Amino acid sequence: MFYYILRRLGQMVVMLLLISATTFAIFFAVPIDPARYTCGKNCTPTILEGNRKSLGYDQPVPVQYAKFVQGLATGRDFPDNAELRAAHPEQVVHCPAPCLGYSPLQSRTINEMVSEAWPVSISIALGAFVLWMLVGVSGGIIAALNRGKWPDRLVVGLGLIGYSLPTFFIGLILLTFVAIQWGVVPVPSFKPFLPNPFDWAINLILPWITLACIFAASYMRLTRAYMIETMSEDFIRTARAKGAGKWRVILRHGLRASLTPIVTAAGLDLGGLLGGAIITESVFSMHGLGFLAVNSVTTMDLPTIVAMVLIVATFVVMANLVVDILYGFIDPRVKVGA
Amino acid sequence: MSTTTPAPKRAAAPAPKVALDSFQRLSRSTGAEVKQGDVILEVRDLTVNFWVNDSWFTAAEGLDYDLKAGEVLAIVGESGSGKTQSSMSLIGLLPKNGRTTGSAKLKGTELVGMPQSELREIRGNEISVIFQEPMTALNPVYTVGFQIVETLRTHFLMNPSDAKVRAIELMRLVEIPDPEDSFNKFPHQLSGGQRQRIMIAQALACDPKLLIADEPTTALDVTVQAEILKLMRELRTRVNAGIILITHSMGVVADMADRIIVMKDGRVVEHGTAADVFYRPQHPYTKALLAAVPHLGETRIEDGRSDALVVKDREFLALEPADDPSVVPALLLENVDITYPKQGRRPAFRAAEGINLRLNPGEVMGLVGESGSGKTTIGRAAVALLPVSAGKITVCGIDITGANNQELKPFRRTVGMVFQDPGSSLNPRLPIGESIGEPILLHEGLKGEALSKRVEDLLDSVELPRSYRNRYPHELSGGQKQRIGVARALALNPKLLVADEPTSALDVSVQARVLKLFSNLQEQYGFACLFISHDLAVVEMVSSKIAVMTHGKLVEVGATSDIVTYPQHPYTQRLLSAVPVPDPDNQRRRRELRDAIIEREHIVS
């Protein structure tokens, strides 16, 4: 088990390096001049060349990538050029490991930007996750147990609606009516969890609902399908034959045995969301990782784009590993590491 | 197999030390203590209906019987006869569209119409069930110990440690090796026989008054089946419970039952003592059912040599004429090893080794063995569906060892294969006429009229109406589907046919008809056949020679009558003695003989 995790972590590092190299290659090898984008309207050749030099774009792409990787491992200092650092020691910015890079447009290290954005994204993702799992799984169970009757139709119908309404639509409707027109909750703006968790939650409730809608719908369908399958298994009949109560049969035997595919899907979805929920964050102007990603793309902030891809990829790959390890605990028939 | 470690002769295992009486019951108990001989269950006019397609379909009708403690009542019938549903109705475990009427009294308490909440207290407590196929009947995500403990703690106010002690005692009672260790194992980590023992332990957990055993040994190998039956026979005298044994196997019935109910299409056609039903059957269906069961070693019993399982010297068998070297054998295996290659981290597995087998043209050889013995592997290799890792396979003079697909194409028309499960080996989207005609189209390029003529001929020869060619597999019964499988295998008039458990998915009476058809076709077409089966009695009916396999090795090959009458290898003897025969007196003798064989082996080892 230990060696399995070690091996998987090793594979993960290799995979992330490949992903970052590919992104790097795409954004820096294309025939656009990254330095030009840092230079603004009143660009003169002198400023352009100065920027190019200070950002290290004057060097070959492989060297730039090597420095990027080195920065991830040991941290690095900006500006990139040693002469410039020596000439203007007061302007040197240190970026500690793992250094994701420096955004010339924001004049900040990307680490700083990310450390401001990630609490927002994690708050949104985790809250929505709890909400959609509760609603989705319980809805799925209710539907499965009443298959073909009205509660099933209701749940499946609601699921279809939740599934088909676009996230930005739900978000805008909630924002316009619940927050602005009726004033039930304040217009969402991110508050840190401490010192006032209630303030944190009330500000996030609308983004949570918005994000959870589509996921809850898909988890309802998933849970319903697996519960219907499991409840017709022989061991459910055995559990009933031993006199176990209705809810014990449904939860301890039925749900427990259908958990494997649900947990798999949940882990991967959550992993993807930790890298930022782009639409939800944009609708509610929450400055999370998704917002950061969109912003960096629209302004062609190349180092930030590379860093964002790496962050999202890391979360997804980590989620995969966690799900694979969880498998062994959820389903004893699966031998992790085999 | 687990038979190789026979249970040591022991005075009956100590009765559980954790007396249930010392714990407060959470579920109510119906009536007082039961003694051997008390009537515990009175069933009157029990009828089970299902609401199907807007009308009531009768699954079982008018059952009347009494059951005494310590008695075994067998309910026999083929699939769909209502034997399972009538028993499940006693504890309210019918599907939602089911309805029960009539009366069933457990120690005077009426079960029919009892609300689910009260029935729940009866289930697992007063009446418990041993289900078939314990792989699926035990929850795969919990340890077996947990599942026994769960039963106990559902009905008794017990703390987990007391329940564990009691569970381990129960596991010891059903002879699970190393119960303390097995307590924490998951179902998939136990063998089929051990899982069935866990199922029994769980059923016995709360000292039930009535035990319903639904096909308790159907999914098991014969030797394991014999052990489970032995265990159940020992238990019936030790627990004061009545047992309802639901089965389709007349052999199992002969081994266990005191009284027998024979059901057909939801009705009881015969009800009597075991001796009455077996020796003086009244109803034509019972007679037909008994006649349809293949009797192992029938000839031997008629010879009055039923005790012939004793090892006899078979020297005279060496006089058997040696195989004529001028005859090209239909199938020749020389020192064949078959290995499943290593996959990722799973190591390579040698499924068969050192196999030498010769099958002459027109001969039917039965290949028997228990699950995992490698018999199917041999069958697949013989038709070049699996590569061999060493040795040589020759079919009708053609060496197929190491041939590639291109080279095998002409070979493939000389062999046919009938698969085990007729349901899944026919393409559900093809009309059966196309399934049969496909090999002809592929190899002979026949089309249109000529093809349809051939398909119709084949349907005739397997005794199915020609109009069936346009039907789809799901419109046919199991027996009909297997006939199609046979027709497809015979489409190219093969010289060698490999039949892999062709009848094991069928009911006895259907099996008898398919086997008869098979024998006729064999005479008519004259193909050589490797008939793979776990059922010795079936093999005995169709084959002239028998080869016995265990653990990937061939242990004995010989003429059918010799193998059945004078088995030489200890494994063959054990296998033969484990097959229950549908004859109570004879079965009792065989059982005693089997115990003697195991005893002897145990002393020797």
Index terms:
heterodimer, A: 338 residues, mainly alpha, MetI-like fold, two-stranded antiparallel sheet, 4 strands, 3% strand, B: 605 residues, alpha/beta, Rossmann fold, 3 domains, six-stranded mixed beta sheet, 22 helices, globular, transport (chain B)
Written overview of the protein:
The complex is a heterodimer of chains A (338) and B (605). By secondary structure, chain A is mostly helical. Chain A folds into two domains: 1-111, no CATH class; 117-334, MetI-like fold (Orthogonal Bundle), CATH 1.10.3720.10. Chain A has helices at residues 2-29, 34-37, 45-55, 61-74, 82-87, 110-145, 150-164, 167-181, 197-231, 234-241, 246-274, 278-283, 289-298, 302-330, and strands at 76-78, 93-95, 102-103, 108-109. In chain A, the strands form two sheets. A two-stranded antiparallel sheet of chain A has the order 1-2. The longest helix of chain A is centred in the middle third of the chain and has 36 residues, at 110-145. In chain A, 36% of the residues are buried. The mean pLDDT of chain A is 89. Chain B is globular. Chain B folds into three domains: 40-291, Rossmann fold, CATH 3.40.50; 302-414 and 495-565, P-loop containing nucleotide triphosphate hydrolases (Rossmann fold), CATH 3.40.50; 423-493, no CATH class. Chain B is built from 22 helices and 22 strands. With 605 residues, chain B is of the alpha/beta class. The longest helix of chain B is centred in the last third of the chain and has 21 residues, at 584-604. Helix content of chain B is 37%, strand content 23%. Mean pLDDT of chain B is 84; it is low at 1-13 and 299-321. In chain B, the strands form five sheets. A six-stranded mixed sheet of chain B has the order 7-9-10-4-11-12. In chain B, strands 18-19-20-15-21-22 form a six-stranded mixed sheet, with helices on both faces. At the A-B interface, α10 and α11 of A face α2 and α4 of B. Chain B: It is a peripheral membrane protein. Chain B: One of its GO terms (cellular component) is plasma membrane. Chain B: Keywords: ATP-binding, Cell membrane, Membrane, Nucleotide-binding, Transport. Chain B: One of its GO terms (molecular function) is ATP hydrolysis activity. Chain B: This is ABC transporter ATP-binding protein. Chain A: InterPro entries: BPD_transp_1_N, MetI-like, MetI-like_sf.
